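Course assignment 3, question 2. Fill in each field.
Student: A.L.
Task: Predict the tertiary structure for the chain below.
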Amino acid sequence: MDVVVHPGRPLTEQEVVAVARDRAPVVLDPECLERLTAARRHVDDLAASDTPVYGVSTGFGALATRHIPRASRTQLQRSLVRSHAASSGPEVEDEVVRGLMLLRLRTLVTGHTGVRPETAQAYAALLDAGITPVVREFGSLGCSGDLAPLAHVALAVMGEGQVRVDGDVVPAAEALERAGIAPVVLAEKEGLALINGTDGMLAMLMLACADLDRLLRVADVAAAMSVEALLGTDRVLAEELMALRPHPGQALAAANMRRLLEGSEVVASHRGPECTRVQDAYSLRCAPQVAGAARDTLAHARLVASREAASAIDNPVLLDDGRLESNGNFHGAPVAYVLDFLAIAAADVASISERRTDRMLDANRSHGLPPFLADDPGVDSGLMIAQYTQAGLVSELKRLAVPASVDSIPSSAMQEDHVSMGWGAARKLRRAVDALTRVLAIEVLTAARALDLRAPLRPAPATAAAVAALRAHVAGPGTDRYLAPEIEAAVALVRGGELLAAVEAVTGPLE
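Answer field:
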């Protein structure tokens, strides 16, 4: 699908993901150019004035008190971008850079930044040509926005720095020439307009929200499989019980699990009076409460993301009446807080998943399953060390749940004396999402083997579909095999959505 950028409409999560990951074409609505042309006249009038205007005819940050003569203003913009393109460390993923470029483009076309039409068009052209500026991990404090990452993008638009094209790193000037894109010579105000935004952290938030939406449904699938494997009950999922505590996410998670367990011979096998167990362990009984709380956290994060995507962030910002006003809208606190909140939720969903896995591997708690689900316990270790891997991931997730947004290190000679650290919060959330993917994949791998060992009792059609999807890539119970490739195969099925698609082909879309 084409993603149309319009000055009066925020980009949706789906559109950002489509451009960032799937390289959907970007189209500028004709109204964008009209809005940009009209707004630029105001900036040109301010530039012609003898009165110093921040961002147009002064230095930046703590150097804002210096008035810059007209002859030096092109150099002023160029110097700003070059000096701020100061990131270091590993490269940031292409999808993040593409996402932040698209979100910055949307702010540019609102007209509130005062850039020229050709500058905005250059961003769209780079995206469509698959030219991705090289941005490195460290450099943004999340205030004044994601300065260093955005500066690397602006540098590429100028025809400087490095970019990736089809996986290869090449000089930006060479890539632009090949694509027939003219480098932009920045005019007054434009350098600042290109780098002053929360677009990097917002792009990572929107990508994480899309991933977590899928992973929380996988968490319900994994939990349902584990309930069956551990001879748990589905009675705790009853709608009337959920209604006593009306958190919407909890109700959705329980409804998913009821659908997933519908028709399970395993669950039905121990519903009678001969079953002496009164209650399941918390990791089974409270699965919808934990996954539900994570869903409610995700819903809040998406609300914040939608508000941020509807914003026009710059400093100074051009108002509709032509005034250029300083402000603090670039501060990343709103985004940083929810990035940290999601990392907490991801850690807890992973934690309860690991507890279910450990229970399936412990012969004292698994209700008849062999130790570690091994073929010949003692000779074979089964999935013993898969749980070690899972536990290591959960431990890492707990470290990643420590908030970044509570930290602040003053910068720019104390002019920027409180910062959000939102970019750091976003970077650790990406690692948390990857770790949660792996934890859930190991639970699915373990529960699938446990369900195979419950034969001849058959699991529910939906959970059986999950087992079948896994069995297309991973063999069933047997003697010990090289385990790492099987774990990675399960991870790929969870990450790529194939496992969830197989289940939803039976249940219909899960919530």
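Instructor remarks: Strands lie at 3-5, 26-28, 88-91, 132-133, 136-138, 162-165, 168-171, 317-318, 324-325. The longest strand covers residues 88-91.
Grade: pending
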